[in-house]
Every structure is written in structure tokens, then in C-alpha cells.
Amino acid sequence: METKHIPAQHQDAMPADEHKMDPAPDYAPRHPGVGKLKGKVALITGGDSGIGRAVSVLYAREGAKIAIAYLEEDKDAEKTKKLVEDEGSEAILIPGDLGKKANCDKAVQATIDAYGQLDILVNNGAQQWLDEDFANLDEDKIDRMMASNIKAYLHTTQAALPHLKEGASIINTSSVNAFAGMGSLITYSMTRGASLAFSRSLAGNLADKGIRVNSVAPGPIWTPFIPGTMPAEQVEDFGSGTPMGRAGQPWEVATAYLFFASSDGSYYTGQTLHPNGGMVVGA
């Protein structure tokens, strides 16, 4: 795959905006759909951009109808909605802070109101900041990350469970940092470790109901997280330190979410896939 140079850049926002990134992240699926998700409905949090956008478009190509929950990035969300529709599917947009339980309930109910069912829940929305001084971590940022990266996953899943039938799939985004850790992302790594433990524990709880729960632990992926988190000079050539020598693109991660959502992953629960460019970590 051609490696594009990533120039220095920064956005003073979290989440940042995909439409301002240079180069634009690559979300486009590489293969024709074969109906792996035909007749399914997926709720994807953080579905407006980055990995969430790539998953939304890939799921649509495979036949699913999409509900996109996101914080406030309307321009990115509208583009993702159009991309889903260009695949011949349908999408609804659900803005709101999922760090608040009422908005998690609202997102699930909006999905049911629109489509009458829910088959796939992708808990993907999150926030991230650098922790440069552990002794003086910002309490507000800690609280925001805990709400977005942990509580939102728990409460959205709680709201979804009454609607999920046997054969349904829950997929939670974790991170390579849940396994390898990162000194400059202590709080974020802690929350991604929580989403990993949540996936493994919930998988055991729901196995007898025929609901599978898995996680995806991406490495350095070129998404709005990066210019929204790092100083401009650290963004330049982001991902070049991996064994593959480049950052991953969102489309390369979305395929893991498709595997877990479809019948291809029917014998997988409590497991994790690692699209991380060759960074070897524990299972």
C-alpha cells in the first residue's frame, strides 16, 4: 500500500474534524459487498468520522442500515450519511454526548424508532488527550474520558440489550495501548483497558443468550484523534515507527468490525483483533 506523507498539523478540538485533515483518511471499502449484513441494523457510536465512518460505509455496502451516533461534528456526520446512502443503504444521524446516560437511551430508541430492530452495536466513540504531567492530570479531562470511553459503552449497551436477539453482535473499540501501555496516554490507555475487560466480561455474561461480544484494538490509525491529540510536530509522519513503517487507514480497521458483526465470526466471543501494523502484544 502506498504510504502518504503526513505533514505537521493540529486541531484545537476533541474530537477533531475529518474534513480538515491532510491527507484525508482513507475510509473506502476495497471489495464488492456480498450481503454479509443484509437485513441487519447497526448502531455505530462515533460513526461520523475515522474508524466509525469506515465501519458505517463498509456495513452499508454489506447490506446493513446504519444509525450514526456522534457528539457534534455535523459536517463529518452528514458526509458519512451520504456515503452510506451512496452504497444503496439508509442512515440516520443522532447527535449528543453519550457520556450522559439519557443520550445513550435516546440513541438506541432513535434506532428502534427508525428501523424497528437492532442487530449490531459498535461502541466506538471516544476522546483522548496527552498526559504530559501525571502528577497534575486535568480532572475535567479525566472525567470526560471516563464518561465517553467507559460509561457511554456501558449505558449504550444497557439500552440496547432489550432489543438484541440471538445472533446479535456487540463490538467494542479498545486500543493497542490497553496491551502495551503508553506513558503519554495514561488516562486514555486506562479507559481502553476498561473497554477490553468490559468486552471479555460481557461476553461470558451473554453467551447463553447467543449474543457475541468482541473488541478491536487498533494501533496508530490516521483518524481525527491524531491531530486533535498531538502537537503538530508529533503528527508529522505519524505511525512511521511501526514495523510496517506507516499509519494504518480506517478502512484497514473496518474489516475487523465486519468480521465480528457477520456470520464469519460466529464462533468468536470475548476475543480481540489487532490491526496495528505489526506491533506484537499479548492476546
UniProtKB/TrEMBL annotation:
Pfam families: adh_short_C2. The keyword Oxidoreductase applies. Coiled coil: none annotated. Gene3D superfamilies: NAD(P)-binding Rossmann-like Domain (3.40.50.720). GO terms for molecular function: oxidoreductase activity, acting on CH-OH group of donors. InterPro entries: NAD(P)-bd_dom_sf, SDR_fam. It comes from the Bacteria. The keyword Oxidoreductase applies. Signal peptide: none annotated. Residues 1-22 are annotated as: Disordered. Belongs to the short-chain dehydrogenases/reductases (SDR) family. This is General stress protein 39. It comes from Jannaschia donghaensis.
